[in-house]
Amino acid sequence: MFFLGHMVWAYVWAAMFAGKRNGKLFIAMILMLGIAPDIDLLLRSFGVIHHTLTHSFFFWLIVFAPFFAVFRQKTVPYFVAVAQHFAFGDFLVGNVMIFWPFSPTYFGLNIAMTSMLDVALETAGLLLAAGISYYKDDLRRMLSIDIRNLLMFLPLLALLTSILFFAVDWSFIPLIAYIWSRKLLTTIILGHIILAIFLALSTLQGLRRLFNNREQHE
Fold first, then answer.
1. Banded pLDDT at 214 (limits 50, 70, 90)
2. Residue 30 CB-half CA count within 13 A
3. Is-contact 150 207, C-beta < 8 A?
4. Any residues with CB less than 8 A from the CB of 113 and at least 6 apart, and which?
5. Tell me: the pLDDT tens digits for 8-53?
């Protein structure tokens, strides 16, 4: 999946596993955990192969073990947010070594990222995330004037970086022409734009609170 799909489905799955005792989800962290396994793209120069180490259940069980020990049930939605990346998203759209290092076997349907299925999944995830966030009142929180919304800049930066990553081998004008010539890619780009605008608005609300606090202290 693109970062769009990984982020919105991370929120959808995390919200479904968040019990009443967990309180409000830390949305910025959920979104970042949704794309965290793809850090292996930055580790290729160190010999890390994409869809292996950081796409394994065992790797993330070790990472989350201290959090499960301390926070117990409250950790579940955050673990689900990262696990859905390879157990759901990359399993359907691609293939991954889910049981690395105990098994070198790749699991997945290996469907292309630009296929109708992927576009449908990413679009459905965006719509579901919007609906759930409204129902759970997370939408209001993310658009409120709150200093914590400054952290929404992190998923925003990651989302914009991912767009540049896929466009790096294209010259700008031909890339735009190619995208708008294919309806599936157009849908994906529009989804990225919608999510980016929302994250930008949330970040701006955090900045407003920051500036308001400074003015009050002056």
1. low
2. 27
3. yes
4. 1, 2, 93, 94
5. 999 999 999 997 766 789 999 999 999 999 999 888 888 888 889 9
Amino acid letter at 156? L
Q: What angle do CA 36, 102, 5 make, to 5 degrees?
A: 25
What whole-number distance in Å separates Cα of residue 11 and Cα of residue 31?
Answer: 7
Distance CA 186, CA 196 (A): 15
CA–CA separation, 211 and 82 (whole Å)? 33
Q: How many domains does the chain have?
A: 1
Whether 150 and 203 have beta carbons less than 8 Å apart is answered as yes
Alpha helix segments (H runs only) across the chain: 3-17, 27-35, 57-71, 76-84, 90-92, 116-135, 138-142, 153-167, 172-181, 183-217
- 93 is in which domain, residue-wise? 3-217
